[in-house]
Amino acid sequence: MSLQDLHKHKNFPDLETEHLFLRQMTFDDIDFVYNEFSDPMITQYLMDEPPLTNRDEARDIIQFYSDPETKTHNRWVLVRKIDNQTIGTCGFHKWDKRYFRAEIGYDMLPQFWGHGYMKEALEVVLANGFQQMELNRIDALVAIENKRSLSLLNRLGFQQEGLLRDYFYLDGKFYDHFLLSLLKRDWHKNKIQG
Ligand SMILES: CC(C)(COP(=O)(O)OP(=O)(O)OC[C@H]1O[C@@H](n2cnc3c(N)ncnc32)[C@H](O)[C@@H]1OP(=O)(O)O)[C@@H](O)C(=O)NCCC(=O)NCCS
User: Which atom of ligand 1 is least distant from the CA of 109?
Assistant: First the structure.
């Protein structure tokens, strides 16, 4: 098998967009992962896990995502081409092969919000999901106050399906979340319509 064929058969290959490289997370990303998941602007919307308090926890996250080809989750790191800056992460969770579905997750340092970078990244990530991973459905769970995330998902064609009441619990409080999804047939239709 050629190197090109090997790349083609990866579930989570490195990806590229106009402004970004998407590569798998490595242990060199410990400082970035720590900064990202301890930043209150970011963690205010992530109720499934508490904010990080030390670098050992960042190492655990990277360990969780290591060797993704053997797993049902992965995390790409977003690197801006123009200056090689690491700006955020995104990836899949809870890939259920039997039902052809997975959940998407993403985050970006606040100084890089407002440039369209995450939309650009998720466009290739969704294509990877529907084509390489052969998904039929991609889920997203979003805290109801997370306007930026909801607007991003809307622009990508996700549909809101319902309100999950008291879905996550953190620090003594329950948090409502919206459930959204994008189906392969709708993604395909949107792509054709441009
Ligand atoms: C969710 C998150 C990634 C969204 O970031 P974002 O920068 O708003 O999203 P995008 O990359 O799609 O950029 C869209 C913004 O860039 C602007 N933009 C500028 N140039 C653009 C371009 N060429 N193309 C598209 N959008 C562009 C858009 O107008 C929009 O800004 P606005 O909302 O102020 O109008 C970010 O808010 C985040 O990391 N939040 C914390 C973590 C989190 O909530 N994760 C999701 C949990 S469900």
Answer: 39
DSSP state of 190: H
Q: What is the DSSP string of 114-176?
A: TSSHHHHHHHHHHHHHHHTS--SEEEEEEETT-HHHHHHHHHTT-EEEEEEEEEEEETTEEEE
Report pTM: 0.95
152 CA to centre of ligand 1 in angstroms: 6
Dump pLDDT digits (tens) for 116-164. 999 999 999 999 999 999 999 999 999 999 999 999 999 999 999 999 9
Segment 176-185, tens digit of pLDDT: 999 999 999 9
Ligand 1: which residues within 6 Å by Cβ? Answer: 42, 45, 106-108, 113-119, 142, 146, 148-149, 151-152
Q: How far is the CA of 119 from the centre of ligand 1 (A)?
A: 7
Q: In the prediction, which pLDDT does 194 show? A: 73
**Rounded Cα distance, 153 and 139, in Å:** 10
Architecture (CATH level 2) of domain 3-193: 3-Layer(aba) Sandwich (3.40)
